[in-house]
Amino acid sequence: MAGEAEYPELIRDEDPWQGLDVMGGVHLRVWQWEAGRLTAVISGPGAMRAEGVEEAFVRLHAEYPQATVELFHHHPGDWIDMAFYAELAREADGSVTRTRIFGNDLARRLGPSLYATEDPEDETGGYGGP
């Protein structure tokens, strides 16, 4: 595809994992720009919880110790919340901030593989629904 070389390479798209302290699975995807520079996106029910985000930070830094890692969160829409993307940043005190961003802005950076591998929205009626 024309322009494909402009995007980083998707090097990891793993099945959702259930962490030791995480309620709900976390889906992890990682793109590599060049050696030492990565962008990762986590999604799934566990990604909304602080434990899921913390475990993702720990795993990424353990597995890519020499890399600079940008971490983003994708929340697929469900019966409670609208879908959104957010940039995650670890502060000096160890806390994590979420800054919502437009998914299309991230897709322009990462290319078609972002939307091609994202989690689908939950179309159920919610608790007690059909």
In words, what does this structure look like?
This protein has one domain (8-116). Helix content is 20%, strand content 32%. It has helices at 50-63, 103-110, 113-116; strands spanning 9-13, 27-34, 37-43, 68-75, 84-90, 96-101. The protein has a six-stranded mixed beta sheet with strand order 1-2-3-4-5-6. The N and C termini lie far apart (41 Å). The mean pLDDT is 84.
What descriptors fit this protein?
130 residues, 6-stranded mixed sheet, globular
Short description:
With 130 residues, the protein is of the alpha+beta class. It is built from three helices and six strands, in the order E-E-E-H-E-E-E-H-H. The chain has one domain.
Q: Helix and strand layout, with pairings?
A:
Elements: E1 9-13, E2 27-34, E3 37-43, H1 50-63, E4 68-75, E5 84-90, E6 96-101, H2 103-110, H3 113-116
Shape descriptor: globular
Our Rg estimate from Cα atoms comes to 15 Å
Report the total helices.
3
Tally of individual domains: 1
Strand and helix order: EEEHEEEHH
**SSE-based structural type:** alpha+beta
Low-confidence spans: pLDDT under 50, at least 5 residues? none
Strands of the biggest beta sheet: in what spatial order?
Answer: 1-2-3-4-5-6
| Average pLDDT, all residues | 84
Beta-strand residue percentage: 25-35%
Count of beta strands: 6
Q: Major sheet: size, sense and barrel closure?
A: 6 strands, mixed
Span between N and C termini?
Answer: 41 Å
Residues in helices, as a percent range: 10-25%
